[in-house]
Write a structure and sequence with these properties.
Length: 369
């Protein structure tokens, strides 16, 4: 396979499968007239050592897990869409507008791609999508192209795993694309001079994507996720370590007054317990990384402002985390709600605290609806 598999197209209807370090999530959607129905939503825990940092480490174990979760959900399909978290290179690049399709393909896939890859071009699967036309500062008409590249060894491992599970991959894309698809209508409310920062807080890392007109212009993965928050909390409370981070869904981040330089003032009387103090410390580190990412993007010289933080992933379910980030970064922040964003018809009510963590798998399921 010479390109990232069908990043921007789809075939026969299947199921969306999200692979994370701690679990597999599955979503199947169906169109009902003008509406969408969430037919199936299921999840299964993964043992440690099967999947890490966007890579499948144990192909047979992962294939078996995919078969198990589909079997338990009574889903019989031959096709699926899935996403690779945090391992893709994405760039928006300008190319001359007068190129025909073949010339554009040759330039992007071979000449341009090699300029942006931190590894040899022959080791990459690359795909691209033409975006809009624009006139540069010299008055020359150009077209923007979204370039996406992933190491071949990673894409091959996903394809092999799904084949072992008895599935053909319709789509292998980045998880950030799937998440953006879920909240596309929400993102279109911003102007072309307003960027949204999507903060996808996963198990072992957080993926930060700065999106303009529904297109990711900057992405960065920070090694802070719910497992790090949970581990810090457990150590501070003298609790045994655990991979189960469900405890965080019941936690609330205290929001404190800010001093004149934007740092939280200590709560009078030292009223913060050790667990809360530890959680605040690591979430403060994440806020600092988010600020650095936004500043880096804004310093690229584009006439742009970041208008909103959108929080997704299981970490977004931590109570008042949106208020905490809004206070630390002086930006409006809100958790993503994929059920409301898509006006999904669901058979059983899904609790609000679980919804931000479903944005990616629902976006993958949308590919197959």
């Amino acid at each position: 396979m010479n390109i990232v598999k069908s990043l921007f197209s789809s075939k026969k209807r299947g199921v969306g499968v999200e692979i994370t370090p701690e679990r597999i999530n599955v979503a199947r959607l169906r169109k009902q007239g003008q509406k969408l129905k969430l037919e199936t939503l299921s999840s299964m825990d993964l043992p440690e050592g099967v999947f890490q940092e966007g890579q499948i480490l144990d192909t047979p174990a992962m294939a078996e897990a995919i078969q198990t979760v589909l079997g338990e959900s009574r889903i019989k399909v031959r096709y699926a869409s899935t996403g690779i978290p945090g391992r893709a290179i994405t760039r928006v690049i300008p190319v001359p507008a007068e190129l025909d399709d073949n010339e554009l393909r040759e330039m992007v896939l071979n000449q341009e791609a090699s300029l942006y890859l931190p590894f040899p071009r022959e080791e990459a699967d690359v795909d691209y999508q033409k975006l809009g036309l624009f006139v540069d500062e010299d008055g020359i008409e150009k077209v923007q192209v979204l370039l996406v590249a992933v190491r071949k060894e990673i894409t091959d491992s996903y394809i092999e795993t799904f084949q072992q599970a008895g599935l053909n991959l319709n789509i292998l894309e980045t998880t950030s694309f799937a998440l953006i698809r879920t909240i596309r209508e929400q993102l279109l409310q911003f102007t072309s001079q307003e960027a949204a920062a999507i903060v996808d807080i996963g198990f072992e890392s957080t993926e930060i994507s700065i999106v303009v007109d529904g297109i990711p212009h900057f992405s960065r993965t920070v090694p802070i996720g719910t497992f790090q928050v949970q581990s810090t909390l457990s150590r501070a409370m003298n609790l045994p370590p655990s991979r189960n981070t469900d405890l965080l869904q019941g936690m609330t981040v205290p929001t404190t007054p800010m001093d004149t330089v934007g740092s939280p003032q200590p709560i009078s009387g030292g009223g913060t317990n050790p667990g809360t103090a530890a959680m605040l410390r690591i979430l403060g580190e994440l806020a600092d990384e988010l600020r650095r990412s936004i500043d880096f993007y804004l310093n690229q010289g584009e006439d742009m402002e970041v208008a909103q933080l959108l929080l997704a992933g299981p970490g977004a379910s931590i109570g008042q985390l949106d208020e905490f980030f809004a206070q630390r970064l002086s930006l409006p922040a809100s958790p993503v709600d994929p059920i409301a964003a898509l006006a999904l018809d669901v058979d059983e009510e899904i609790p609000m605290e679980q919804r931000p963590g479903l944005a990616t798998v629902i976006g993958l399921g949308l590919r197959e609806a």
